[in-house]
Amino acid sequence: MNLHFNMLKPTKLFPLTLIALTLIASACGNKPTESASGTATPKSGATAPAASSAASPAASPTSAPKQWSKAPDMTIDPNKAYQAEVTTSKGSFTIDLFAKEAPNTVNNFVFLSKEGFYNNVTFHRIIKTFMIQTGDPLGTGRGGPGYKFADELKTSHKYEPGIVAMANSGPNTNGSQFFICSGEDCANLNKKPDYSIFGKVTPEGMATITKIAETPVEMGGESTPSKPKEKVTINTIVIKEK
Predict the structure, then answer these.
(1) What separation, in Å, do the N-terminal and C-terminal C-alpha atoms of the chain show?
(2) Average pLDDT score over residue span 17-34
(3) How far from 130 is each of 42, 113, 118, 135, 230, CA to CA, in Å?
(4) What is the 3-state secondary structure (H, E, C) of 166-226?
(5) What Å distances lie between residue 208 and 42, 89, 182, 183, 187, CA to CA?
(6) Higher-pLDDT residue of 106, 34
(7) Are 19 and 223 in contact (CB under 8 A)?
(8) How is residue 22 annotated by DSSP?
(9) Tell me, what DSSP letter sits at residue 120?
């Protein structure tokens, strides 16, 4: 899924169609979307709220990414502070997670991170002045964890460089794909905030976000070049409870 801007829609779980960044005047423009199959570009999401019972991996070949039949049980404490220490092939950065404002989304991210779901996953969609998208184990913008969960759009935060939000393929279709705002064009999303914000990269880590955003790209099915010419991956994500 490319962001509705084809990555804001999953490519998050599933990327949707991308609208030229330079012309994003309203809710259109490059939006994070996912493709119908599971890429995240903030517009893929879940078909329904997370289930209450514990999620367990569905049987699949060892070479295939882990999949679950439903979203994970709530295991985090929304009143505590959580950070995600992310190591990539281009450096490291830390995300302050907004557990109180987006408890289900943070809980999902923490669960998948601890399961090693994001290890070796690529940044499959990059638009320097807008955002960098990742979270698809297939690297195509069409992959996800096997389930979807509801949006959490009530927040005091705005889309700006460093903000981390879910990519989706429509209302309540969140899965595993997410994007990190890397440039000023992400502010256009504030006109129609359809992507659940669940964290922000600390100032010290923005140099790494910039480095990833500067990865050379080429055309890849969208109206704007966004397909990385080189492989950029998440190596590991370590969750810290403060």
Answers:
(1) 34
(2) 43
(3) 12, 24, 22, 17, 19
(4) ECCCCCCEECCCEEEECCHHHHHHHHCCCCCEEEEECHHHHHHHHHHHCCCEECCCCCCCC
(5) 21, 10, 10, 13, 20
(6) 106
(7) yes
(8) G
(9) T
Looking only at the bridges linking them, the beta strands covering 163-166 and 123-127 are: unpaired
- Rounded CA-CA distance 173/11 in Å is 11
Confidence of residue 223 (pLDDT cuts 50, 70, 90): confident
DSSP 8-state code for residue 98? -
11 φ/ψ angles, rounded to the nearest 5 degrees: -60, -15
How many whole angstroms from its chain centre is CA 196? 9
User: What does the pLDDT look like over 110-167, one tens digit per residue?
Assistant: 999 999 999 999 999 999 999 999 999 999 999 999 999 999 999 999 999 999 999 9
Q: Which residues partner with 84 through β-bridges?
A: 95, 239
Give the Cα separation of 51 and 145 in Å (integer). Answer: 14
State pTM to two decimals: 0.80
Least confident of 28-37, 104-113, 182-191, 208-217: 28-37
Instruction: Residue 112: name the closest of 51, 191, 62, 57 by CA.
Output: 57
